[in-house]
Amino acid sequence: MALNEQELIETYRGLMNAFPADLHIARPLIQLLQTRGEKKEARELSMMMARRMLSLGYSRYALAFISICEQLEHPDIEKIDSIKTMAELTIDALPHGETAQVFALIEELSDAEAQDFLKQGNLLHIPEGRDIVKQGDISHSFYLILEGTMRVHMDTSTGHDIGLNTLEKGNFFGEFACVYQLPRTATVTAATQAKILKFQGSAIAELIDASPEAGDGLMRIIQRRLIASVSYAHPVFSAIEAADRVWLEEDAELVEYAAGDVIDEAGEFFFILAFGQALATREVAGQTLTCELGVNAVYGNANDVLALPAQTKLVASERCLVCKVPLEIFTAFSIAYVGFEGWVESHVAQRNEKLQPV
């Protein structure tokens, strides 16, 4: 159910608290307040944005908001004249000072497109301690935090519950379960009372259709988060330090294969099967040898430790997501972390044994 007018205003106010210099949020909120007859709040917000834009060095935007102040008959004529004079003097200067933080999910959209997207949400008030999504669940919703704090945590292969992240107002979560139709990789629990927007997965598809640029940015965020979850769930990374996890997130890629696709093994990469199943097949002296590879399986023909036996074909048994990691990361982790290469060697030995003739 689409947000009503009051809920939409509440949503924009929450986003303004998280992103106080975002034009995509300020402009529609001013218009909504005008429509509601809340002229005083609309003009005060316009003045605040004019000052904010001037302080950031965005003189043209400052003048635009000052113009709105004048249209709304803001009573502080002296302040209007002061900001207008300063903005006109610096109109051709490059922006300086702090960088404006923006709501990345709608950064590439027009104000109308962004508002249409936000209207698709369902406004929820969440008590402290409630799980919003649970690890392993299958659902097709994602969430935007307007107020409050969320704790992201997961159960590892060793049975421990570990904290992955803390999400504040303006953050969103649950989006890659929508895009890739995956079970939830982590649990998200309200650490405080919270106000959130819940979107159905179709909202992401519509966002991507509306703006390829916004879609590309969103997909980069989704892939990085999924790679991060792999770094915590996979036993080979259990001892990896936080900085090296960031390195992995930044440099690794995610590749998707449909059932029946031949899975790539080429290039200087360390591959991890992040989701799905694949079948390794090898013909030796008229004998067909096979080995099923599941989640967390590793391979890569660029390195003898990782390599599948010669003439092995790897095919997706179902839809697969493969994490493609530069080989230099594998090499660095092998040197830096005791047990890293040992885990890989043990895993590969068990796999390759099934692909050797008796």
Provide the low-confidence segments as ranges. Answer: none
**Strand fraction:** 15-25%
CATH architectural grouping of the largest domain? Sandwich
What is the global morphology? elongated
What is the overall pLDDT average?
Answer: 87
Q: Report the strand count.
A: 15
Beginning-to-end CA distance, first to last residue: 62 Å
CATH topology of the largest domain: Jelly Rolls
Secondary-structure element series: HHHHHHEEEEEEHEEHHHEEEEEEEHH
CATH class designation of the largest domain: Mainly Beta
Structural class: alpha+beta
C-alpha Rg (nearest Å): 26 Å
Secondary structure layout:
Blueprint: H1 5-18, H2 23-35, H3 39-56, H4 59-71, H5 77-89, H6 111-119, E1 122-126, E2 131-133, E3 141-147, E4 150-155, E5 161-167, E6 172-173, H7 175-180, E7 187-190, E8 194-200, H8 202-210, H9 212-233, H10 242-251, E9 253-257, E10 269-275, E11 278-284, E12 287-293, E13 298-299, E14 312-316, E15 320-326, H11 327-336, H12 340-353
Antiparallel strand pairs: 1-8, 2-7, 3-6, 3-8, 4-5, 4-7, 9-15, 10-13, 10-15, 11-12, 11-14
Helix pairs in contact: 1-2, 2-3, 2-6, 3-4, 3-5, 4-5, 8-9, 9-10
